[in-house]
Structures are given as structure tokens and as C-alpha cells.
Specification:
The protein is of the alpha/beta class. About 30% of the residues lie in helices and about 25% in strands.
């Protein structure tokens, strides 16, 4: 059964209200091209404990050495799609990795992950994995791009409840992600990207 267009439009509207960028793509190839373009067009080396022009400790210098080029991490993409993404990124001097996120804490530019579901009512994507690499990718990248099959969009959390209950008997990491990381802890001033990605993109895979 196809997903009602109104449900897709509602997810786009609600996700947009929390500063997420949402787009529909006709194919996985289009999604891969989107990821490569976003990385190529973003500024590099923004994740720093101190400015590049400031004196750094030996430990900080070693951390910065892990970030010598733009990096896309794609820990749960199918191998065929990783190969296509790698070919596109190599042309632009961008590295693509699928593991080793703990050794790349100096900065990951883009994390691209598969979303298990989308909740239209709140503009939320649900990421589920047993792989630590996926969990790290969604936390330490500056920009998180979630690939969401159109058929996986539900109206609200109540519609998603049966699926969530079925997952509870299995060990896994399940995250409900609504927009980029944000906090207003300091003097109630909203800041993005403090505890996680600065940007959140949702690509809705049409017909999937």
C-alpha cells in the first residue's frame, strides 16, 4: 500500500519546523548524489575544541591530524551504494568510510544512515541498529543525512507502537531523532549542534 501524499507532506512540514532539511528523491542513486553534493559544498573542519589558529596541546594536535580531508561515513549503506558514493566522492577529494568512527573523532563531515521509520506528527526519524558505528555516526558528524523509505512513514507514535514493541525482545540501538541537536541550557539561548549534528537532512526515498 502506498503512503498517502498528505502523510509525506506532514512529515516534511513538521521536520522543517525543527530546522531539518527534507527532500524527496526518486532513487538511491539520486540520494547518493545528494550526499556527495552536500559534503562538497559545506565548509570543512568546523569541529574543533579550540580554533585552528590557537596554540593546541599535543593531544589536540593529534586529534586535528585525524581530520585532513572531508569525510563521509556510511556505516549501514549496502556495499553497492557505498561503492557508488565512494566513486562520486573521490572525484572531489572526499573520503568515504564505513567503520572506524572512534578513530575519527577529530571530525566527520557527513553521516549517512538508513532510517527504519518516520513519524509524520513530529517530523521524527527512527534509526535502529546493533552496530556501534551507526550510533557514533549519528552523534559525531556535523551533518546527519537520514535515508527514509516512503513506505516507512507512519502518522504518529501510536501507529509506530506495534513495531517498537516487536523490537523490544532484541538487543539494539534505537534513536528517535527530531531535527539537529539543540539545547537552550545556557541562558535559554537556543544553540544548534552542541550535543550532536549541526544539520539534519531527511531524504524520502519515493516508492520504497
Amino acid at each position: 500500500m502506498s503512503t498517502p501524499p498528505a502523510l509525506v507532506d506532514r512529515l516534511k512540514e513538521k521536520a522543517g519546523l525543527v530546522s531539518a532539511v527534507v527532500a524527496s528523491v526518486a532513487s538511491m542513486d539520486e540520494a547518493i548524489a545528494y550526499v556527495a553534493d552536500v559534503c562538497a559544498n559545506k565548509e570543512a573542519c568546523q569541529i574543533l575544541a579550540s580554533g585552528c589558529d590557537a596554540p593546541l596541546s599535543d593531544t589536540a594536535e593529534a586529534l586535528c591530524e585525524t581530520k585532513q580531508q572531508k569525510i563521509v561515513c556510511a556505516p549501514d549503506l549496502p556495499e553497492e551504494d557505498v561503492a557508488k558514493l565512494t566513486a562520486l566522492c573521490q572525484e572531489r577529494g572526499i573520503a568515504v568510510i564505513t567503520k572506524g568512527m572512534r578513530g575519527r573523532l577529530g571530525g566527520i563531515d557527513i553521516a549517512v544512515t538508513m532510517a527504519a521509520a518516520g513519524i509524520a506528527e513530529t517530523g521524527t526519524v527512527v534509526v535502529r541498529s546493533t552496530d556501534e558505528e551507526v550510533r557514533l555516526a549519528t552523534m559525531i558528524a556535523e551533518t546527519h543525512i537520514a535515508l527514509l523509505p516512503e513506505s516507512a512513514i507512519v502518522a504518529d507514535s501510536y501507529d509506530f507502537e506495534p513495531t517498537l514493541v516487536s523490537w523490544m525482545g532484541e538487543p539494539n540501538y534505537t534513536a528517535f531523532i527530531t531535527g539537529p541537536s539543540r539545547t537552550a541550557d545556557i541562558e535559554r539561548v537556543l544553540a544548534l549542534g552542541v550535543h550532536g549534528p549541526l544539520e539534519m537532512h531527511i531524504l524520502i526515498l519515493e516508492g520504497k
